[in-house]
Every structure is written in structure tokens, then in C-alpha cells.
């Protein structure tokens, strides 16, 4: 199976953690893309980081979900100095509003369509 | 504050539940929009339903997050007959792959930018 960039993060064996970040951005997006790419790189170095999904409705809501093996992995990411600096800048410049929900996964389930011989 | 359709669901007092549904769709989308709208109506009738966020990257990943007061509210939604029928049809027609993560929120946080007098 290809690790297609648009394939969602798989269902891991619970328990694990999800951090659901929902955000509406401002018009001021200087350095946002670069900082976002840097954060995506940095978080991969956190032991226990499992993956990240992101979807962005053009002109609307963005949802990012980070998956972590345990609360310690999340705490490490939360205390990362570069990450904290990016959060502060986000409040001042990039985000009109956002919400973070940190939750412990109790149940997970994945579905993948069987390849049809008819489909290319 | 306006209940702007793009404003994310707020941070409730934990504990509550999130159901994170990440999906990649197929080319076959007959009746998808109508069914999706019907599900959005139906879930609002579930006691303990708190809200829903959705973001869709064009041609890519869709993320839907449902928020529920407790496990009982989620169980009621999961057992809804029309919802179950829609899930089955989704597996046959609409989704190439999807993942569901059901998790209990332990911590939540919201940020809303103060209105600037300079901004319209």
C-alpha cells in the first residue's frame, strides 16, 4: 500500500492521544507556510509521535489532528521552545480563532476499500 | 458573537467525547451531499450532541469531528438506524478509505482574537 500523502493516519491500538486543532486564519499569513512546514518537521522528532492529518476548507476552517502514543509525547511537543514561539506568533498574526481538544483514544476503526480489478 | 458557520466548535469543560473521522472519497458521489446533510440534521437530535466541525481539502482528505457530552450520546448516534445504513453505503460507494478515532477529551483550550478597532 502506498503511503499516499492524502491517506489518513491509521487506527492505532488504543490507548493513544489525539490533539484536535481547529482554526480560522486571518488575512495576515506572512511566514505561516514556512513555520507550518518547520513544525511538521519538528514534531516528527518527538518520540511517540504517530502522525498528523490536516484538511483545509479554502477560505474557511482548517482542522489538524496530531496523534501521539501517550501523554508524555504530547507534553514534550507542548513544551518545545520553537513550537511555543510559533503558537505566540499565531495568536498575534495568523489566527482569528482556534480551539484545541486533547483526548485519549478509547476506540478506533479503519476501513480501506478492496482494490477493484476494474479500477485502474 | 455571531455563530459564524466557519467558527470552530468551542472548548467545552472536560470530560466530553470527540469522534474524529478522516476520509478519502471515491469518484462515486451520488447522493453523498444529500445523505451528509441528512446526517447533520439527524445528529442534532441526539441528546448530548455538542457540535461538529468539518474541513475538506479539495480533491483530498476530509476531516469531520463530532463532539458529544458523554459515551452514551455517542452510542446513541452509533446505533441510529439511518446512520448505520449511510455508513454501509459509504463503504460500498463513497469512501476509498476512512478512519475513526473515538476519544475522551481531557483538556481543551480556546483562543479568540480581540476585535481590533482598525479592522472593519
From TrEMBL, chains A, B:
Which EC number(s) does the record attach to this protein?
Answer: 1.14.-.-
ABM domain span: 16-89
Q: Which InterPro entries match?
A: ABM_dom, Dimeric_a/b-barrel, Jasmonate_Hydroxylase-like
Write down the top EC class of this protein: oxidoreductase
Keyword Signal carried by entry: no
Coiled-coil annotated spans: none
GO function term, MF aspect, one:
monooxygenase activity
- Enumerate the UniProt keywords alphabetically: Monooxygenase, Oxidoreductase
The record's annotation in PANTHER family points to:
ABM DOMAIN-CONTAINING PROTEIN, BLL5343 PROTEIN
Q: By what name is this protein known?
A: Antibiotic biosynthesis monooxygenase family protein
Amino acid at each position: 500500500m502506498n503511503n499516499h500523502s492524502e491517506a489518513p493516519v491509521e487506527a492505532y491500538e488504543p490507548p493513544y492521544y489525539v490533539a484536535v486543532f481547529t482554526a480560522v486564519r486571518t488575512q495576515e499569513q506572512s511566514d505561516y507556510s514556512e513555520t507550518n512546514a518547520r513544525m511538521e518537521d519538528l514534531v516528527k522528532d518527538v518520540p511517540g509521535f504517530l502522525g498528523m492529518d490536516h484538511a483545509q476548507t479554502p477560505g474557511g476552517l482548517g482542522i489538524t489532528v496530531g496523534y501521539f502514543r501517550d501523554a508524555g509525547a504530547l507534553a514534550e511537543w507542548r513544551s518545545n521552545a520553537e513550537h511555543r514561539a510559533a503558537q505566540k506568533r499565531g495568536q498575534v498574526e495568523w489566527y482569528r480563532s482556534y480551539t484545541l481538544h486533547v483526548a485519549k483514544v478509547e476506540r478506533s476503526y479503519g476501513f480501506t476499500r478492496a482494490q477493484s480489478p476494474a479500477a485502474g
